[in-house]
Write a structure and sequence with these properties.
about 10% helix; single chain; about 70% strand
Length: about 160
């Protein structure tokens, strides 16, 4: 039940940023992730805004694991460093990765760049280091470090 509520809240947050902004986007990316040396490849769908208010951006994302099979949910605050076709940004956020009975709850930082190829599309790349608390049915049993490398495209509305 809690997972369903988290999913709804994250998607509403991302869609809220998307709907209330002058620079909303929706996109997809290919993600190469390593958690304590274990590779996790996924496809991520995201929605949000580079200008949600006060110069901040926000986004929510849903990832589907390709190898191995897993689910990922996340939300980030984005801090753009300028304007124009080449937009570097940083950010902080949180995510959950579910690998069957094993769950990772993460706090992450990110650094990325978005290049607008036209008035309505952009290519982006990000590096996302993450600190995780790992848990299973018996409770929290340790910590883990992970990093994601993301490459994708966003459609700007």
């Amino acid at each position: 039940m809690v997972k369903r509520l988290v999913v709804v809240l994250l998607l509403c947050g991302g869609l809220g940023a998307f709907a209330q902004s002058s620079k909303p986007f929706a996109g997809a990316s290919l993600v190469f992730q390593w958690v304590e040396g274990t590779p996790l490849t996924s496809l991520i769908l995201q929605a949000g805004s580079y200008n949600f208010g006060g110069g901040l951006g926000a986004r929510a994302n849903l990832g589907i694991g390709v190898s191995p099979s897993f689910l990922e949910l996340g939300a980030d605050l984005l801090f753009p460093f300028g304007v124009g076709r080449l937009l570097p940004y940083g950010g902080i956020g949180g995510n959950w990765v579910g690998l069957g009975a094993l769950n990772f709850f993460g706090i992450r930082g990110l650094a990325g760049v978005n290049y607008s190829t036209a008035s309505d599309a952009g290519l982006f790349a990000e590096a996302v280091p993450t600190f995780y608390l790992a848990s299973d049915a018996t409770g929290i049993y340790g910590t883990a470090f992970g990093i994601q490398i993301r490459f994708g495209v966003n459609y700007l509305f």
